[in-house]
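Quick start: what a row looks like.
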Amino acid sequence: MDRTLRSPEKVYGLHFSPEEIRQAVAQNRLLTLDLETSRVCNLRCVYCYANSGHKRENELSFEEICGVIDQAIELGVKNITIIGGGEPMLHPNILDIIDYIAQQGITQNLFTNGTLMTPAEADFIAARKVSIVTKFNSLKSEVQDRLAGVPGTYDLIHKTIELLVEHGYSKDPELPLGLETIICKHNYDELPEMWRYARQRNMHPYFEVITFQGRAKGERLNVEMEQLKDLFHRLLEIDEQEFGFTWNPHPPIAGLSCQRHFYNLLVTSNGYIHPCTGVDVNVGNVRHHTLREVLDTSPVIHALRRIDQHIKGKCRACRYKDECYGCRGFAYHYCGDFLDADPTCWVNESSEGDRPTTLNR
């Protein structure tokens, strides 16, 4: 059995080599950009980090979005992820945005809730080789609809998955399809089955822990720490025994490691610049600052890009500190400091007794 890591980092913009990341830091450049198109959404997911639903005031125009893309490319960006903030397919210029990125020769990922895509849109997006990640929170309609806040969501998501497969997704290596799942009390018992569901269909499971932000603040969704640890190890066992994958189990994403704090920026729908979705700290606005100015002058970005010099607590002494710095979003929302130790991580054995037993606040 091939026991090397074959998880789909490329689907999520996490596929860069240590040398590429080192050069990006040394040259103060970008490798990825997260682009939030609008906060408009047809769902009301109870865990939504962005509290999305309605359009914000002063959202970026199509021309402004293209300008942000141009700046990112000048800074070395190789991949752009359209995260929506709300639902990207509701943006009036979404196909124009996708086409503009494709024309620049940049790979792109589209995160969608999977309820609105038409056959014509699927054909357009597939022709531009866009990687797609769609919501997939349960194999049970009542659970999926409860988490989405809208009845009928389950049926629409499965129709979209079928539509994408018809257009080559999960079959063509250039058309990867990811299934995004939040880990919570409502779906915890079925997560191993859902992991198999994705792997058996050559789809990429993207199982992540909920950060304490947005609408998630009003819900008690998170599982206990020991449950989370047990789940990650069960998913690893499934991968090693049934599919020939292996990986190092640690939060917040099963099977993947995120080092985006070294090379990423997020631009919100009204132009504010954040390090990532988890560290939602304003470090500028594209209407007043260029991305280059933010990279050059922001103390937040400077600290995150040189995190080995600034990391605090147990993460600083962790035996994996050269390859993992924990989730900065969890540190920020649970500890109030994005440089603090990740309070959700069980990997650092010396932290036993110092971390919370639950992810709820």
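That is the whole record. The two ends are 42 Å apart (CA to CA). The chain has 13 helices and eight strands.
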